Structure formats: structure tokens, C-alpha cells
Amino acid sequence: MEKAILTPCSESKFPNVPALKFFEAEGDLLYFGATHYLNGMEDGATLSVADFMLKFDYQIEAICQTSEISRDGLAVTDDTGGVYLDECLVIPFLMYAEEWFGVYVCHRMEELLQVGVTLNDDLTRFLYESRFGPGSTETP
User: Fold this and answer.
1) Shared-domain flag, residues 13 and 71
2) Are residues 66 and 128 in the same domain?
3) What is the rounded end-to-end Cα distance, in angstroms, of the chain?
4) What distance in Å separates the CA atoms of residue 128 and residue 16, rounded to the nearest whole number?
5) Over the stretch 17-38, which tens digit does the pLDDT of each residue have?
6) Containing domain of residue 113, as a range?
7) Are 87 and 118 members of one domain?
8) What's the pTM value of the predicted model, to 2 decimals?
């Protein structure tokens, strides 16, 4: 695994998942801190980046083929030994690390295909509160 000099991104790509930190490497490549995320989880000791790469091998291979990405550059490490994965693996990684995430994504995709638009929970809450007021128990 190659070592890389990583600079923390000023904005998170996924603000609803605050523990997921993104970093920029040379050539405008984005990586996220996979080991940092797993270490911050309650049951993170049972999970590992190597296990993720093994269990999601088929999907990772499909991502590499369709995006014409070399598998060699998908993971890098820093001076501390932390493993950072290419941003293209963030969705499969979250599906591996968080049991609820895969189901959540499927529901949002179903909503998108049926209705033509989907909203995240924070935006839905904001729109509801802006219409009915904070803490309102009114039903639309």
C-alpha cells in the first residue's frame, strides 16, 4: 500500500455522517479515513479494512472496471499507519460498517425511482418545521 501526504478537507462530503473525514491527496484525489472511522465505532474492533475489501471484492472490482480505476490506488496509508480509501468506495464502505445504511440507501433509491426526487431526513425535518414550526405535532 502506498504512503500519501493527505490534507484534511475543509468541508465534509457527508455532513450527516460527521465521523467520516475526507482528505485530499496530490492530483486532487479524495480519500476518507477508513481506519479512523472503524476505530471510532463501538463495535469497530470486529471490523477491518481488509475484511471490507474481501467481503466487497465483487463490488470493488465492478467499480474499478466501470470507472477504469486501478485497484492499486484505491487504498493509501499515512505516517501513522491509518488506511484511507478512495472516495469511490465510500458507499460500499458505509454499507459494510453501518448495518442500517444499506437499507437506508435502498429506500432512498426506491423513493427516487417512484417519485423522481428524494430528500434526506434533515431537509425533510427542516421543511416540516419551517411550515408548521419547531416541535409542532400538527400533521399535514
Assistant:
1) yes
2) no
3) 54
4) 18
5) 888 999 998 877 889 999 999 9
6) 99-140
7) no
8) 0.81
Picking from 64, 81, 97, the residue at the C-terminal end of a domain is: 97
Q: What is the pLDDT of residues 48-99, one digit of tens each?
A: 999 999 999 999 999 999 988 888 889 999 888 889 999 999 999 999 998 8
- Which helix or strand (DSSP H or E) is residue 35 part of? helix 34-39
**Joined grid coordinates for residue 120:** 434526506
Beta bridge partner(s), residue 8: 23
Q: What is the DSSP letter of 56?
A: T
Rounded alpha-carbon distances, angstroms, from residue 39 to 31, 32, 34, 46, 103: 17, 13, 9, 10, 23
89 is written with which cell numbers? 468506495
Whether residues 90 and 107 fall in one domain? no
Both 6 and 33 in a single domain?
Answer: yes
Q: Residues 102, 25: contact at Cβ < 8 Å?
A: no
What lies within 8 Å, CB to CB, of 69 at 6+ separation is: 63, 86, 88
Tell me the residue ranges of DSSP E strands in the chain: 2-3, 7-8, 22-25, 29-33, 75-77, 83-86
Is the domain of 67 the same as that of 110?
Answer: no
